[in-house]
Amino acid sequence: MKYSQLFPKTQREAPKEAESINHQLLVRGGFVGQLMSGSWTFLPLGFRVLQKVTQIIREEMNTTGAQEMLMPLLHPKEIWNETGRWDTAREVMYQFKDTRGREFALSFTHEEIVMDEVRKHLRSYKDLPIKIYHFSTKFRNEPRAKSGVLRGREFLMKDLYSVHVDEEDMYRYYWRVKDAYMRAFKRIGFEDIKLTEASGGVFTDKHTHEFQVLAESGEDTIYYCNECDWSQNKEIFDGLVGQDCPECGKGKIWQAHSIEVGNIFPLGTRYSEKMGVFYTDEQGERKIPYFASYGIGPSRVVGTLVEVSHDDKGIVWPKSVAPFDAHLIGLSGNALEVYTKLKEAGVDVLFDDREVSAGEKFADCDLIGIPVRLVVSEKTGDRLEWKLRNSEDKELLTLEQAVNKLL
Amino acid sequence: MKYSQLFPKTQREAPKEAESINHQLLVRGGFVGQLMSGSWTFLPLGFRVLQKVTQIIREEMNTTGAQEMLMPLLHPKEIWNETGRWDTAREVMYQFKDTRGREFALSFTHEEIVMDEVRKHLRSYKDLPIKIYHFSTKFRNEPRAKSGVLRGREFLMKDLYSVHVDEEDMYRYYWRVKDAYMRAFKRIGFEDIKLTEASGGVFTDKHTHEFQVLAESGEDTIYYCNECDWSQNKEIFDGLVGQDCPECGKGKIWQAHSIEVGNIFPLGTRYSEKMGVFYTDEQGERKIPYFASYGIGPSRVVGTLVEVSHDDKGIVWPKSVAPFDAHLIGLSGNALEVYTKLKEAGVDVLFDDREVSAGEKFADCDLIGIPVRLVVSEKTGDRLEWKLRNSEDKELLTLEQAVNKLL
């Protein structure tokens, strides 16, 4: 794509109210725009990143045998009353009356809505397991949303729900989803990620698990072992930093700030019991199914990537989710020809074709953070200057060499 | 995919309250589920159709140079007040106060939100045209939603917005989008579709255009020429059925029922003026940009397809948006082997592997409506019985022949 045609361009200054790094860099780079506090447009450049994050998560969910669908966002009060969450989750839910006095909530999660659909169809053990997920908007009544796209009044969520004959089958799939989450987060580009034990909040009495990315700017505090996989969050940790790990006995407990990018909930039979969901087992007996839910916020993932991967010049996107494969800067006449050839070779390239100074083009390139920078100028002749975003090394390559390294 | 693993299965009876054909067949086939009146889950089978419709629309929007993004659904009252639509569109908008007394609307369209983002970035004529679109949920306060997925309290919408230096450039792009819409609707499988002149409703004072699919069950009434492209909707038609066409003079005016699947609005400067959106032209003068918007409801498109393409046994999906390429019915032992080979060859196949009667499998296959039915049985030996959904002809093919016809 030609940068001259992209809406919008970069901006020099971050908005005054932007406190967090992701807010500052994503707005300056033209990735997102703020409608109001906690409410974001993913502009074309940001949408490309969001789509790549989404597609990686989709692929990993599908490997677990889960099926994609799409559920409504406006929910009747009656369904939320069945589990009591109309009252217990009132603080986080937007609730309102329509002009005819009927009461609704905006989706902050979908357990009740999934259970309602499941009970219409579930008859026999042969119908289980059920594994369904969607990418959809969630709303949370946030009094002060100050963390950029990390925390909003509304945000994108991938939520998966699974229904099982018994606890054993639920946990078998639960750990399979855990593995799929870890694969997704690695593919997205997170390096320091912990599976952290946590409490269930308004979801369940059981312990649940969070996926926490270590980040200095993180709002969460977690405790983890420096030797094994043991980790707990602040809500449930009951020990001292520096003590021996209760799990392996060899390592020590460390403390760190972190950002939660996903969570998984082994809900058990709480929702099925309250909502009257049953199935008939092989012996013809009526049984209560086990239920679990699993969330990842793709928009939050984008913000987290910026928090952990940037420098003083701008964002440094991992290759797997970068908005383009390469950023081509044209400083001489034959840049358009190079752009055309790169596109024909199948390279997804952003071409800065504007009539602005070289300095401005280089600064915007660093701000936008595409992993590979290519420069065509008088100096490079019939070659291209190749430079990675996170390195100062430059080399001169032929077009063919550049294409081979990119594809 | 194995049908035994798909959630949910078909159901014999339509819900009692289901008045429309799309409601009856989509629920019976397991494509959609109703949460409440006018509120639908697209279940895995229905989501596949929705995704294919969406992808065709996306491809055609991209050919016009439009850029995909994603905008918020919760909007502050202040923005809707700038154009006066907080009051004039009050009847269709869900409006509510949060717990802190702040007033919001749920998105029923996005003109104001787009204009707010555009005015933050638009400086010069060099920034124009801007062409941005998204697929997102829309909400409408519908008192009685009785048309299945055709009319809902919430639904999926592709809305595109374009901003231009002048009226001429706006109309140039307007007609280009019209062509892209026509291509999209043809690819989706609509045969009888009319471009119909209409009034602008709460959007604009100008005449707009609707894309109307001729359908006996349609709620709309349109008038069209039996010779040329002339067509008007009921709101603005001021003539008699049977009279000479005012456009070509050769044809006669006919009347028909129809379903609206898309609309395009040449909004002009109304929104830019009210919201203070400007740009600087080549002479350095401050100018008001021209604005247009363009909508297609992909969920409504799915319902319309069912209304115009079904028989007494079930749905007849066009090939381009069918949930699978082929429906394989296994009545003998080697069906699993055939299924595996079809998948390996790249055929997206639904394999009915259940232990139910042949009659039930054939009935479900007709209800679900995948274009190609393949049967493996004792009778077919090492071949496959090939039958199209909309034909009674059967032929015996080798696996290789079947694959070649499918790909």
From TrEMBL, chains A, B:
It comes from Candidatus Blackburnbacteria bacterium RIFCSPHIGHO2_01_FULL_43_15b. Signal peptide: none annotated. It is an enzyme of class 6 (ligase). GO terms for biological process: prolyl-tRNA aminoacylation. One of its GO terms (cellular component) is cytosol. SUPFAM superfamilies: Class II aaRS ABD-related (SSF52954), Class II aaRS and biotin synthetases (SSF55681). Its EC number is 6.1.1.15. InterPro entries: aa-tRNA-synt_IIb (IPR002314), aa-tRNA-synth_II (IPR006195), aa-tRNA-synth_II/BPL/LPL (IPR045864), Anticodon-bd (IPR004154), Anticodon-bd_dom_sf (IPR036621), Pro-tRNA-ligase_IIa (IPR002316), Pro-tRNA_synthetase (IPR050062), ProRS_anticodon_short (IPR044140). One of its GO terms (molecular function) is ATP binding. It catalyses: tRNA(Pro) + L-proline + ATP = L-prolyl-tRNA(Pro) + AMP + diphosphate. PROSITE patterns: AA_TRNA_LIGASE_II (PS50862). Keywords: Aminoacyl-tRNA synthetase, ATP-binding, Ligase, Nucleotide-binding, Protein biosynthesis. This is Proline--tRNA ligase. Residues 46-318 form the Aminoacyl-transfer RNA synthetases class-II family profile domain.
